[in-house]
Structure prediction request, 69 residues.
Amino acid sequence: MSTQRRVYVMHLPSDWTVEQALAIHDLLTDLAEVIWQQYEDPISDFLHGEYGPIEEQPDLFDFDDPIPF
Prediction:
């Protein structure tokens, strides 16, 4: 499965107030959350197929390991 990714260059206005920038940030964060809630399973399946399974991090602090000295 291969898809082409489009790269978009976005130019933001340089005259936004902090409140305007924060409002846009909040809107996009909320939008991302709604999309994730609606499409979590299909997105996860797609990413699994695209990138393969995620390998689990080994336990780096297994205190039952024998001390080698």
